[in-house]
Amino acid sequence: MAVDGTDENNLEKGIYTKDASRLRKTFGRSLSDLSTSQKCGAWASHFQRLFVSFIGADWIFLMILGFIMAVISFVMDVFVDNFTEAHRWIYDLADSHVLLQYLAWVAYSMFLMCFAAGFANIVSIQAAGSGIPEMKTCLRGVMLQEYLTFKTLVSKVISLICVLGSELPVGKEGPFVHIGSMCAALLCKFMSLFSGIYKNEARNKEMMTVGCAVGIGCCFASPIGGALFSLEVTSMFFVARNYWRGFLSATFGAFIFRLLPVWNRQEDTLMALYATKYRLDFPFDLQELPVFAVMGIVCGFGGAFFVYLYGKITLFVKKQKATNSFLMKNCFLYSALVSVLISTLTFPLGFGQFMAGQLTQRESLISFFDHRTWSNHGIVADFDNDDHLAAWKHPQANVFVILSIFVIMKFWMSAISITLPIPCGSFVPIFVIGAAFGRLVGEGLATLFPDGFNMDGHVYHITPGVYAVVGAAALTAGVTHTISTGVIMMELTGQINYALPILISVILSNMISQSLQPSIYDKVILSSSIHFIFPFISNFTHPVEVRYITLNSTYRDIFKILGSGNLKTLPLVKSTESMLLLGSVERAQLLALLKQRSQHLRKENAPTMPISLYDSGLSLKKFFCSRPDIAAMEIEEWEEQQLDEQVNFNNCKIDPAPFQLVERTSLHKTHTMFSVLNLDYAYVTSIGRLVGVVSLKELCKAIEGSLPADGVRLRPILATFRDRGVRGSWTETTELRKLLDHQIS
């Protein structure tokens, strides 16, 4: 709509009037009465407020977080590439003698591994491990603040660079989820200088979820898969408003992550991280779908076995620590021993020649996803010596033997490596193993059907690289219990045409693995002292008895209740006889009532009369006033009268609908409510009457007491048939009423 000159003048006048009124409130007089310096100061203050509100906006936070994570990921990749090139340079430098080459190959990896283990354990022990289990714990109610410090961030990044540079079969996706959460938590502290909303704990948890999505997005340049992965892995209940935040931040981070190599002239343009060249006109034949389904089933069993193997190795390591064996006396010995063992087996001139030991994990994935067929009846085709595929050619073994050895060796090597006290992830090594298994299946089919499939007179040859893509997604899904791995794979390779076989194999793998074992992240939680379903750490300190206030409460009652503990909120009931719950009142509101009463008495008495309400410990010295013109006994009588006056709640903010549970609520429903709403406490009512209060701490104790001695039983979504035959061995008979027996008695 057009605006004429009069309207423009009125608009200007309106804006000017608003600013003038705001300035008048600030300086107590009209704008025309201000001097030039005061006007400039006022306008500077106004623009400062606008700038602060702009900086504190959500989208600014999300873009800053994405940019920071992209830079960290890119810089980390550059350092890792330099470490790898240095390793190869030292190895080639000693080509005159096999023993020197072996020492160079083993010592380099061992040095970086020991440095990473020592740095992580000395600077911040919380930097060790994946980080995803700890983030699951934080996002499900238990804030582990020591895992979110700047010191832990520095320790995690530096140690992870050294671990990846040592070429141990571990990945960076798990640690990067942790790094993303740490960056989000630290950025929230910084942004709280501009916007008070970032001081809210619930808001910070939402931003930590976004950090998890950005961590995956900046590892694989897969923003959609990263957001979905953070939804599946880190959150039991996902807040819908975090969708756009996760997608925005992960997309911006992935864009910057892929743009930096172009800017650094490492790549020509933006493209998928593992771009493939598969045919687009006829991606796959219907006859191949059963093979993809069988691969999903096999990968489900393989993923469950990997989790089982990891659990056994972890149990063995714990027993060694408990017995204080020589191997576990410090973090260096175990890490050095594993590093020497794996480096010896992957030595290119030794056993490593039968498993392409000279290739890094990235180079192995590139070769697995290659569109060319490696073999003709088991003989590797002739490739250039500088091609990654040349590493899979051996005069004494065909490609099937080499791939089989690779899968078997990397399987147990990866399971051992993620038990080390270093920053390590399991996503990438499982990815590589699954891709190798898929390549093995694809090469076998290409050998069995060298002419491919004949459809309507057209011959379509089998592409083994497609099976590597499906195998990588399926095995990773079996280990992590996620569907988003399929989406990550599509973004990683730039192949949307193979969505159907990928999703079929991923879903079947999930069904099998969930029925046999928990996910690798839940296994880590179960084998440690951190329990995300039942958080044993709580800052909430509700007493056993129920403390409440009534409409007839006096100031003495308010003072006694506030002085008896640090309760953040108190229930408000109609009377002691009826106990009808009317709502809840925050502690700050009750303190404000006492302050208002004190100010009211100050006005009624002498203006110079000293009135001391309470000190920091809420212990009264003189509750309302001390008058020097009357006797001490009269002062005490006067104070007692003031304390016994009834409180007026008219000016107090009361929450009319606090969270409530009925008496017979089951333990499962109670836990679900606390988890979904992130509650610290809930009032228990019976026909509207307050009968008790349940805190998070009491709920944890009740759940812990209702569990079997062997620990927590996890119930995956697709694992309904796992407990057939043993149903009834553990039934949920504990009810909320049992939590209140000690309160009512």
UniProtKB/TrEMBL annotation:
Gene3D superfamilies noted in UniProt: CBS-domain, Clc chloride channel
InterPro entries to which the protein is assigned, alphabetical: CBS_dom_sf, Cl-channel_core, Cl_channel_volt-gated, ClC
Keyword Repeat assigned: yes
Membrane topology: Multi-pass membrane protein
A GO molecular-function annotation: voltage-gated chloride channel activity
Positions of transmembrane segments: 59-81, 102-127, 176-195, 207-231, 243-263, 289-310, 331-351, 399-420, 427-446, 466-489, 496-513
GO cellular component, one term: chloride channel complex
Location(s), subcellular: Membrane
Superkingdom of source: Eukaryota
Alphabetical UniProt keywords: CBS domain, Chloride, Chloride channel, Ion channel, Ion transport, Membrane, Repeat, Transmembrane, Transmembrane helix, Transport
Principal localisation: membrane
PANTHER family in alphabetical order: CHLORIDE CHANNEL PROTEIN 2
Name this protein carries in UniProt: Chloride channel, voltage-sensitive 2b
